Model the fold of this input.
Amino acid sequence: MKAAFDHLAVSAASLDHGARVVEAALGVGLEPGGKHPFMGTHNRLLSLGPGEYLEVIAIDPDATAPDRPRWFRLDTFTGPPRVTNWILRTDELDAALAAAPPGAGQPVALERGPYRWRMGVPEDGRLPFDDAFPALIQWQGECHPAAALPDRGCRLRRLEIAHPKADRLRPLVPLSDPRISIVVGPKAIRAEITTPHGDWWIE
Done:
């Protein structure tokens, strides 16, 4: 079973505020994303190169509230915008979820505009290891958000996932990527992004 890094999720109390914070941190503008009716959320996006991107995501105040907890714990999100989740893509979502720790979610079919995907969505909106375990996604068809985004020269240089039980988490992640490390420490997700203006950390 193989998986690859797909995108980062920066959660925010409001989309405008989250976008401003990320734009100020990286010195590049974000692109319009879209709405997720199933979860009552919306996002803005930044290309991180072929097949990879960053999204700022928040509750859509104009959307109907879902009848289930929103993903990425957005229902209880407080504080400044921050990296809350990382997402891996796989061509074998059912097998990946079967091998994942309990709580990684059940496969749910989703769509936004031209995009179709299946994703492991936890019933309570919480991923294993305090959300340090990645969300798992399987894109359907040829459309992927990164392909529609202008290339602003940003790339993921390093992603560090810290957790007190990193030694237990590490063997459960179906990924081998030299940019990504899982280390022992207080729960945190930090990303170093290469931009036209230098390398910058966001967390």
Notes: The two ends are 29 Å apart (CA to CA).
